Amino acid sequence: SQQGEEDPQALSIQEGENATMNCSYKTSINNLQWYRQNSGRGLVHLILIRSNEREKHSGRLRVTLDTSKKSSSLLITASRAADTASYFCATDLLLTNSGYALNFGKGTSLLVTP
Amino acid sequence: EAGVAQSPRYKIIEKRQSVAFWCNPISGHATLYWYQQILGQGPKLLIQFQNNGVVDDSQLPKDRFSAERLKGVDSTLKIQPAKLEDSAVYLCASSLEGGAGNTIYFGEGSWLTVV
Question: How far apart are CA B107 and CA B4, in angstroms?
């Protein structure tokens, strides 16, 4: 089952505005990652935040993590048309043989208009 | 550094036919994953390999899906016979190791339409 749930499902903003996407999850995590997927393409890793971190920055991206609320947010500042994509949060999925994979939410579809 | 390579990019088949997808991971990556992504949803793990061994295939519909990574490098995912609900993007991904917190690198995907 999908661990993370992104909110909103779809977001439409104008260039220059900030975009905020939220992710809620159900069980304890070691890490939470955010990925971007452009239409018709594969997923691209954006940022990883560990459970003992509260905030992380990468360029125009800012990720926060609140483990008490089991939630994370991704903020994209000064958005550009090229930021138009689907954004997914992913948590570690513990597998039956003690391996790990990623468990993805359904994603937020972001549209940035010029 | 070359990324994860997948082929074919697009495939249209009739139900009950078979199809095979090929993946070549990033050089040196021990862990390989196949994910299925249905339109409008997030990717769902089908199978994970560590070198040439299966780590987890609990979500692989084994009556019709099979996957192998015989020499611990490239991998093939096969569907036989295909059903309409198998229409999806099949994403191959790889990582250096399979531990928690490893960055997973995805290929562009193989788009399957079953008619």
Answer: 5
Give the three-state DSSP class for B93.
strand
Task: Check residue B81 and report its DSSP letter.
Answer: S
Amino acid in the structure at residue B88: A
Residue among B100, B104, B106 minimizing CB distance to A30: B100
pLDDT per residue as tens, chain B (115 positions): 689 999 999 999 999 999 999 999 999 999 999 999 999 899 999 999 999 899 999 999 999 999 999 888 999 999 999 999 999 999 999 999 877 778 899 999 999 999 9
CB contact under 8 A, A106 and B40: yes
Residue A105 contacts residue A1 (beta carbons within 8 Å): no
- Residue given tokens 């090929």 in the structure block: B22
**Whole-number pLDDT of residue A99:** 74
Residue A5 phi/psi, 5° resolution? -130, 120
Q: How far apart are CA A40 and CA B30, in angstroms?
A: 26
Answer yes or no: are the C-beta atoms of B99 and B56 closer than 8 Å.
no
Contacts of B10 in chain A (CB under 8 A): none
In chain B, the residue whose alpha carbon lies closest to the alpha carbon of A98 is B55
Residue from B104, B112, B113 whose CB has the most chain A CBs within 10 Å, to mutate: B104
Cα B95 vs. chain centroid, distance in angstroms? Answer: 14
Q: Determine the residue of chain A that is closest to B54 in CA distance.
A: A97
Give Cα A73 distance to the centre of its chain: 7
